[in-house]
Amino acid sequence: MKTVMKMCLAESGLSYPCHRLTVGRRSSPAQTREQSEEQSTDVHMVSDSDGDDFEDATEFGVDDGEVFGMASSALRKSPMMPENAENEGDALLQFTAEFSSRYGDCHPVFFIGSLEAAFQEAFYVKARDRKLLAIYLHHDESVLTNVFCSQMLCAESIVSYLSQNFITWAWDLTKDANRARFLTMCNRHFGSVVAQTIRTQKTDQFPLFLIIMGKRSSNEVLNVIQGNTTVDELMMRLMAAMEIFSAQQQEDIKDEDEREARENVKREQDEAYRLSLEADRAKREAHEREMAEQFRLEQIRKEQEEEREAIRLSLEQALPPEPKEENAEPVSKLRIRTPSGEFLERRFLASNKLQIVFDFVASKGFPWDEFKLLSTFPRRDVTQLDPNKSLLEVKLFPQETLFLEAKE
């Protein structure tokens, strides 16, 4: 008849909380008893090839690996993370895929990217959008890893709480090169004290869960959670970290709102000042344009006046001398009323051409292309007459009163 041995872990002599177990093969019960008596720190679980002495542990409704936290690296076909990975994002992609393969799809969403990128995502955003950073440090050689990942890290309550409040980044410290790489990152971002704390952790104390809070001047490690914990304790420590973070976040939000309010006031003042400067500049430029236009027009006016004056002088110098009242030739006396009411008087020979009268009027500042010369009885526009005809021919003899009128 087969005998089944049933006893609790305490009765078996296993030390708490951790004990290293190995599995071996024995050839006889006597040899097994000998080995059991000689052990001081290691307990060997043995079974013969016939399976007569011990029943498989699955007969008790539990899995051997889950009972003892064993995850033999020999059973794993691929590592969690490649050694000496050049790109941290690629390493995290493999980590996530392997984690899902081992423990299922219900697990924290691991941030894919460098640790610096995770900092940016968690800390360097608006205060309302900031989160805590959780760094999961995996180690395949730890007896706690399998239970921690499957029982704690993949618990729905933990997964939900992490996704809502944390950015979760992971790294595998199983390989020495990856361990050294993380310690370098840790020393750079958190300082030598934190790096030394992680460096001195024993393998059986892994996995580790680091809770990081971003501050103005540095990143603070709020908590280092070791693998020998429970779901309730893990949740309690996550919530305690969130309580500290929330208090700091409210202060940061208040400071940020006040700073934004000050910056808004400054921006409004700067904008008002800019608009004022633009208005002043536009006014100044308009004034400068106006002055430039006035100067241009004044120059044109001066040039026109100079040109007219030159023409006037030229016409004045070209006029024949005024005949005396008593002259052998017939003389015509013309009296011309200007628009201002003044009169221009001059004597002309009756044989003088009408053009000479036009030149005379122009020499006084009334060019005939701007003014017309009218007679009263009969009323006619003298400037429309043939300028080559004599005064006698156009009947401006012996005397005539004319008046000047500006052309429209």
UniProtKB/TrEMBL annotation:
GO terms for biological process: ERAD pathway. Residues 327-404 form the UBX domain. It comes from the Eukaryota. Residues 265-317 form a coiled coil. Pfam families: FAF1, UBX. GO terms for molecular function: NF-kappaB binding; ubiquitin binding. GO terms for cellular component: endoplasmic reticulum; nucleus. Residues 23-50 are annotated as: Disordered. InterPro entries: FAF1-like_UBX, FAF1_2-like_UAS, Thioredoxin-like_sf, UAS, Ubiquitin-like_domsf, UBX_dom, UBX_domain-protein. Keywords: Coiled coil. PANTHER family: FAS-ASSOCIATED FACTOR 1, FAS-ASSOCIATED PROTEIN. This is Fas associated factor 1. The gene is FAF1.
